[in-house]
Amino acid sequence: MEALPARARVYVACVALCALACLLPLLAPHTPWWAVLMLAALYASGEQITARWRFAGTFYPVLLAGAFLLPPSAAALVAVPGALLSPAGQRPLWTRRIWRAAQLAVAVWAAARVHRSLDGRDAVAAGEFPCALLSAGGAVLTLCLVLTALDGGILTVAERVPARRAWRGLFLRSLAPLSVHGLAGLMMAVLWRSPYGSVAALLVLLPMCVSWWVFAQYHRERAAHQSTIRALVQAVDIKDGYTRGHSERVGQASMMIAHELGLADERVEVLRFAGILHDVGKLGVPTRLLRKNGPLTPEERRVIELHPEYGHEMVRGISFLGEARAAVLHHHERLDGSGYPYGLRGSQIPESARVVAVADAFDAMTSTRSYSRARPVSVALRELEKCAGSQFDPLMVTALARAVDQYGWHPAVTADEVCTPPARPPVARVPGAHR
């Protein structure tokens, strides 16, 4: 995003002013500057390391150690140099850096205030762990609350996210990792106050750095997976204009069904991949057939029906796809055995393929194609229900209906609209399922 809306700039300016107010007490005497400078340098170095590893996160243990060791204003200053020097990612760079520095300064200041009010500083100095844990827990909770409040606010003013959605899930997603960082920060603070001194406190960061490196490797591998899938989908999009957007929507619908079925997060992700890649075999089908207006001849239909096998051959060697490969091969099978390529029946059809089959047919009906206009969502769901038990798994149809009722569905036109009205297909066969 090249420019932020005016209201977002005002919001950032207000948070920056709050951060300056938090830093004003630094002008008073007795500020432990050597500790502030040491922690600030450590935090800035940590931010550069995480940026180099391309790991999305921040060096929170150092910030929390500062909140446990320093006066609130001094603890707030620890975050500022590192945040201002860290990569911003998108433009406007300095606005984003100032926002991050101000956000962290306000949050760390509040955490340090709560920690001090709970007598946490004395507990850390004395090594009284029950009391130190309670006060540290209060500081972590405060940090999490302030970060959540500010993040939700910027989403609302900068990206026009509805207020009821802006804060949904932010607090719970950040509480667990911040709690772990809080324990590491507390260990740093206790060692810092111990006879071993500040150098010993740095040893706490070694296992944290190792874990961050492992996570960075995982994220790099995940990014490589995403790039592989994106390249395959883009190749299909270039060849078949209809699939532009269709693959992503089928992936989204597959994910909605999987969530509604209560599947584990790992399987939900795999089913999203299955939905996105279900038509990758169209790369092996002549372009003139994919772009043909009007009905297909029996011979042309037989050629089109080879695309699941082509797709399976293309993705068979991609190990991370797991059961998504079976979905690519079998997503045109039907419960009554009349599908293709192998005419499987009932439970012979893999669960992943039954999920994608419903998602694919639903998007086919709710999207405009060269030979049929988009149907309303309610009509498409009724059509799926009519075919449940013969063509589709009733469990998957019910799961999709519940998910759409709860979250809604907003289909997009994926091909040029035509003026000729489509012929009404038989109820027993969902339209568009052959492509």
Structure at a glance:
The protein is an all-alpha fold and 435 residues long.
Write structural notes for this entry:
With 435 residues, the protein is an all-alpha fold. The protein folds into 2 domains: 6-203, no CATH class; 224-407, Hypothetical protein af1432 (Orthogonal Bundle), CATH 1.10.3210. It is built from 20 helices and no strands. The chain has helices at 6-23, 33-52, 60-69, 72-85, 93-117, 120-126, 129-159, 163-166, 170-193, 197-202, 205-239, 246-260, 265-277, 287-290, 298-304, 307-315, 324-330, 351-365, 377-387, 394-407.
Would you tell me the structural class of the helices and strands? mainly alpha
Helical percent range? 55-70%
Q: Based on the structure, what is the oligomeric state of the protein chains? A: single chain
Which stretches are low in confidence, meaning pLDDT under 50 for 5 or more residues running? Answer: 412-435
* Number of helical elements: 20
Total individual domains:
2
- Main sheet overview: none
Q: Report mean pLDDT, rounded to a whole number.
A: 83
β content, as a range?
Answer: under 5%
How far is the N terminus from the C terminus?
Answer: 37 Å
The total count of strands amounts to 0
